[in-house]
Write a structure and sequence with these properties.
The chain is α+β, with helices and mostly antiparallel strands. It has four helices and nine strands, in the order E-H-E-E-E-H-E-E-E-H-E-E-H. It has a single domain, classed as 7,8-Dihydro-6-hydroxymethylpterin-pyrophosphokinase HPPK (Alpha-Beta Plaits), CATH 3.30.70.560. Strand 6 and strand 7 form a beta hairpin.
């Protein structure tokens, strides 16, 4: 039986073939659709960069179906990033494509190279907001994604 994965997708550097970050994200969605069963994808949103990442990010979340187990899925996602020109560099740096497993239908998972749910998920509005658009009732521990999104919005200073 296939697993359902929530894949967080981000880009803040242009790509020679795909164009600006929103188009890179669209191309990544198409690639995920070609390699796995694309179940749904949220609208693409633009978000301010964090840390030393520089340019703003284009972000979305795609739900894909796959028979792969989490570590195998992670390896496939890293291969897709490399195909898009992603090179490992400094943490929080600019990147052509970033693919992270945010959640999967198997619940919690932990290995040396991967933790699901993503450890920072509850604090990342750039993942929670797109995820809430397509899977608001997906449980992240005792709370659903929509609840976590609401909590995070209330914590943000109003300006």
């Amino acid at each position: 039986m296939p697993h359902l994965y929530a894949i967080a997708i981000g880009s803040n550097r242009p790509h020679g073939r795909h164009g600006r970050p929103p188009q890179v994200v669209e191309a990544a969605i198409a690639r995920l659709d070609g390699e796995f069963g694309l179940f749904d994808a949220s609208p693409i949103v633009l978000n301010a960069a964090h840390g030393g990442a520089g340019r703003d990010f284009a972000n979305t979340v795609a739900l894909v179906e796959s028979d792969l187990e989490p570590v195998e899925m992670l390896a496939r996602l890293k291969a897709i990033e490399a195909d898009f020109g992603r090179r490992r560099g400094r943490r929080w740096g600019p990147r052509v494509l970033d693919l992270d497993i945010a959640l999967w239908s198997g619940g919690k998972f932990r290995s040396r190279q991967l933790t699901i749910p993503h450890p920072q998920l509850a604090r990342r509005s750039f993942v929670l907001q797109p995820l809430a658009a397509i899977a608001p009732d997906w449980s992240l521990g005792p709370l659903a994604v929509r609840h976590l999104t609401g909590r995070l919005a209330r914590k943000r200073p109003q300006g």
